[in-house]
From TrEMBL:
Entry annotated with the keyword Kinase: yes
MF (Gene Ontology): adenosylcobinamide kinase activity; ATP binding; cobinamide phosphate guanylyltransferase activity; GTP binding
Protein name listed in UniProt: Adenosylcobinamide kinase
UniProt xrefs under SUPFAM superfamilies: P-loop containing nucleoside triphosphate hydrolases
Organism this protein belongs to: Gordonia desulfuricans
EC numbers: 2.7.1.156, 2.7.7.62
Catalytic residue positions: H64 (gmp-histidine intermediate)
Recorded metabolic or biological pathway in which this protein acts: Cofactor biosynthesis; adenosylcobalamin biosynthesis; adenosylcobalamin from cob(II)yrinate a,c-diamide: step 6/7; Cofactor biosynthesis; adenosylcobalamin biosynthesis; adenosylcobalamin from cob(II)yrinate a,c-diamide: step 5/7
Family of this protein: Belongs to the CobU/CobP family.
Coiled-coil intervals: none
Amino acid sequence: VMVGGGRGGSRTLVVGGARSGKSRYAEHLMRAQPAVTYVATGGGSTDDPGRAGDGEWAERIARHRADRPSWWETIETHDVVGVLRTAEAPIVIDCLGTWLTARLDMHGVWSGGGITPVEADVEELLSAWRDCAVPVVAVTNEVGSGVVPGSASGRLFRDLLGRLNAAMAQESDSVVLMVAGQPLVVRGESPDKPRSDIQPRVKPR
């Protein structure tokens, strides 16, 4: 159910606010593929000290895993560039917001470090996204439609993610904005249409 792309793979960016249906829609786009690599950039609750002991978060992660097709491979990593460079199967990336947070953490931006290393990481991500040889769908948060964050760190994150989203959209074949569970195509053709070159996976009897 994906449109064709440029260099061997299509690139679709799915943007939406919290609980907008963006992750579910991204997964829907890939369900006809015989093999998919799902890249969870947030990891599980045990991978994030801020989520340690958060039973609700762990339950949410487990529910998301259970909803995915059993034949999908799930990778929990922040190395999205590495996955894009080496992928042999279609990819779902969920999501760019947590990827950016990890880069900000790694480079010590919250404690006063400069953003130049983060900007270099973004350029590397854009290059890998542009050149990816397989169909790929990335999920990201829309953070510019609400109130202005009250903290400097919140405003910095909003600004950086907004710029990242715009740059990714520019390099995408299709961009879909999710509103109340409804997909609105804002760039390119709708990615949600049948393709004759995708063979449905045959489940074993």
